[in-house]
Specification:
The complex is a heterodimer. Chain A contains nine helices and no strands. By secondary structure, chain A is mainly α. Chain A has one domain. Chain A is globular. The relative contact order of chain A is 0.20. By secondary structure, chain B is an alpha+beta fold. Chain B has two domains: 55 residues, Orthogonal Bundle (3-methyladenine DNA Glycosylase II, Chain A, domain 3); 164 residues, Alpha-Beta Plaits, CATH 3.30.70.20. Chain B is 34% helix and 10% strand. Chain B has ten helices and eight strands. A two-stranded antiparallel ribbon of chain B has the order 1-4. In chain B, strands 2-3 form a two-stranded antiparallel sheet. A two-stranded antiparallel sheet of chain B has the order 5-8. In chain B, β2 and β3 form a beta hairpin. Chain B is elongated and about 100 Å long. The N and C termini of chain B lie far apart (79 Å). The chains are: A mainly alpha, B alpha+beta. At the A-B interface, α3 and α4 of A face α1 of B.
């Protein structure tokens, strides 16, 4: 049993890393990894929202869509839930914790359009997770996302002082780096 | 018809539910944001240079509105921005003196010696990691242009002699170059300063003479020549007191290496 959970979490974080293996949520992966601070801020915001949205979408799927036979509306419903949730979280955080809002504030609206959040919500349903698995999977996936973000930010901070040919500077080299990190993660694909 | 009605009803209910929740939340969790903050942020330059000491222009605007920062806190914007901010906030602006960055080193490629040939990453901070830089002088400009690359206003350029040049018109005295320079060679000085010893070396005169033709020896001839007693020698480096100096120029004649110079600014 413990072995199962260990493999489940390890798979979500590393073996099936959401960014590097599934290629979901690549906009922030390239957009906000130019500095470690913003990468950490984005990661924290993503972990927070991912767990909430994963759980809410799962509940909505089981309670409404499945019972009414409206599975085909999944995409539409999940997008609505995620967009509403992010707005709600932003308002609550701004009121309850101004300090947290200053740290996460600018990243929260960006999350609305983060493919990872939606991807995880759908994967939870598609892989037939029960409630506990949904919570753990959402959390572990977001941790995997953070791991990839931190690795990328670390490498890109080094790139700032490296001599880079003009034609590769910026996004091109970012994409090449992302591909290389992805390849190294593929080496673990056999574990699960 | 059945499935269509269920679908419309379910999605309608979801949409309605979310909008009610958000509507209630916007009332319950309403946070008052001073509209003046956006107004002030609009008149600030928006370069987010950090010269004011805040995280960015909007942060500085918030501090100005709260009265934690003076209206002229934005160094980059200068007097015109201070005036605009004062207009928004309804207070009178105190004109701040214009400041400009100056490079406190005259040891160019021909006049200063190098210990070895550095062939690493083209950045002064990286060069500092290799036995504290390739220049024999431990205080002089390394000339790799980290300040030039980091200037948010494009006011710095690298001269052919290996020393950066400051474009006074573009320089806003934000202090970014001072922060990024591993040796803090650039310094932000008021345009009213008339003379300065353009050297940063605290080495003793004998050593300076061996490694650089353009270093301050700390001999104190300028101090003796100064009728206003505006010059102090601090650890083998002459420092001019802006308040006392009247720019008479007696020290320029006496300086054996010629680094005590009159400062010429193209802005006022």
């Amino acid at each position: 049993m413990q072995q199962d959970w260990f493999m489940f979490i390890l798979s979500a974080i590393i073996v099936n890393n959401i960014l590097l293996i599934r290629f979901l949520g690549n906009c922030p992966f390239l957009g906000v990894t130019t500095a470690m601070d913003s990468a950490l801020g984005m990661s924290a915001a993503c972990i927070f929202v991912n767990v909430l949205s994963g759980v809410l979408c799962w509940i909505f799927q089981k309670a409404v869509l499945d019972t009414l036979g409206l599975e085909y509306l999944q995409t539409l419903a999940f997008i609505l839930i995620i967009a509403g949730l992010v707005q709600f979280v932003e308002m609550v955080v701004q009121k309850v914790s101004p300090a947290l809002y200053r740290a996460l504030g600018i990243y929260l609206p960006l999350i609305t359009t983060n493919c990872m959040i939606f991807g995880v919500a759908v994967l939870n349903i598609r892989e037939d997770h029960d409630f506990i698995h949904t919570v753990v999977y959402s959390l572990a996936t977001a941790l995997g996302f953070s791991l990839a973000m931190v690795i990328m930010a670390g490498i890109r901070e080094r790139m700032l002082i490296a001599r880079i040919p003009k034609l590769l500077d910026g996004v091109p080299l970012g994409l090449i780096t992302a591909g290389m990190i992805g390849l190294t993660f593929y080496a673990l694909a056999g574990i699960s | 018809m059945g499935p269509i009605i269920t679908a419309v009803a379910a999605m309608g209910a979801l949409g309605l539910g979310l909008s009610v929740v958000l509507g209630v939340a916007s009332k319950v969790f309403y946070v008052y944001v001073d509209p003046r903050i956006t107004q002030v942020a609009d008149v600030l330059p928006g370069a987010n240079c950090g010269g004011c000491g805040y995280a960015g222009c909007s942060d500085c605007a918030a501090a100005m509105v709260e009265g934690k920062a003076p209206v002229n806190a934005c160094k980059a914007g200068g007097a015109s921005v201070a005036q605009a901010v004062a207009g928004v906030l309804g207070v009178s602006a105190v004109a701040a003196e214009r400041e400009v960055a100056r490079i406190f080193c005259k040891g160019d490629n021909t006049r200063a010696e190098r210990k070895f040939q550095y062939m690493g990453i083209n950045d002064c901070r990286a060069a500092m990691l290799v036995s504290s830089g390739d220049k024999s002088c431990g205080y002089g400009c390394l000339g790799l242009g980290t300040c030039v690359a980091n200037c948010p206003f494009g006011a710095l350029s690298m001269g052919e002699d290996g020393l950066p040049r400051v474009d006074d018109e573009k320089c806003t005295a934000c202090g970014t170059c001072v922060k990024v320079c591993p040796r803090h060679i650039p310094r932000v000085i008021p345009v009213s300063q008339k003379a300065a010893s353009l050297c940063s070396s605290h080495d003793v005169g004998k050593l300076v003479k061996e490694i650089c033709e353009a270093g301050c020896l700390g001999c104190g001839l300028c101090k003796k020549a100064c009728p206003e007693k505006a010059i102090e020698v601090v650890k083998f480096l002459s420092v001019v007191d802006t308040a006392k100096c009247n720019g008479c120029g007696k020290c320029f004649e006496k300086c054996p290496t010629g680094i005590m110079q009159s400062l010429v600014f193209t802005v006022v």
